[in-house]
């Protein structure tokens, strides 16, 4: 479906808040090759084109295998800085004014890259993004749910010296067979340190994982969460408590959570009163950054300017920022609509 030019302009211009973005998922094939050459890392793909052509996924796990392999080229502080700065440059072009970045420290510490190298490079890029582009940002440390609870505890321990540089903790990686309950204790420990909990749930996993994320982890936002529709009582609760769902439309198509964008339930969920937001997840792998996600939705689903505004406001409402900053984000978003 062709995109109405007025809606297209609004999508381009409206200030955006991104709440579901894996910074390692912004590593574009060109940068994979650049960093591999710098560090003398041998790659299984012969060219940038061959790597990009491999981005055809049957499910979440087939994506994760490539995503973790790609991370192997991230070796020193300047690599993390370069990757994150490249994201912010693209985000700025897309009108992002605030971003909350997930990172997966275990993917790096497991290869011998220290926590301080990871956080140091990311934080330096976040400072640059603020001074160059006026983008504010926060960091959310994600535990890899396919690994044991004790590894998550060790990761939390390693992060304690950097507590003031983190806003929250999340839960990602392969969902099926790794329920939130596995991480109840480590989330309690993280909360006791003032970290705000979020969790991926209801992407490939069942609605019961969304309930567990709320009840056992205290999750303040649900990442993806689209399978909540399988439980009417849960939907009512998410509406009542205005728990944000950080939807990632292009990701859901690439990973076959929905067969086509026309079948995505994001607009239906919005109509039911859920606090839905639009985000880019792993944009280097899924074919587009946040504005492309909005455009893909607007092409396939019945949404108008008021819905785009609502989706952007929802993200500002759900951001982990102080009240004054939230009021500023909301005012800037509303200022784009006349
Ligand atoms: N789902 C779960 N884990 C992830 C994802 C995702 O989309 N991206 C990076 N880690
Ligand atoms: Zn994700």
User: Major β-sheet, in short?
Assistant: 8 strands, parallel
- What's the shape? globular
Helix content: 40-55%
Instruction: Please identify the oligomeric state.
Output: single chain
Task: Provide tags for this entry.
TIM Barrel, single chain, 8 strands, alpha/beta, 338 residues, binds hypoxanthine, binds zinc ion, 8-stranded parallel β-sheet
Layout of helices and strands:
Blueprint: H1 5-13, E1 16-22, H2 29-39, H3 48-53, H4 60-70, H5 77-93, E2 96-103, H6 105-109, H7 115-133, E3 136-144, H8 149-159, E4 168-172, H9 184-192, E5 196-201, H10 207-215, E6 221-224, H11 232-240, E7 244-247, H12 249-254, H13 266-271, E8 275-278, H14 283-286, H15 290-300, H16 305-318, H17 323-334
Helix pairs in contact: 1-15, 5-7, 8-9, 16-17
Descriptive account of the structure:
This protein has 338 residues and is of the alpha/beta class. It has one domain: Metal-dependent hydrolases (TIM Barrel). Helices cover 50% and strands 14% of the residues. The protein has an 8-stranded parallel sheet. The longest helix has 19 residues, at 115-133. The model has no long low-confidence stretch (mean pLDDT 97). The site of zinc ion (ZN) has 6 residues, from strand 1.
Short description:
By secondary structure, this protein is of the alpha/beta class.
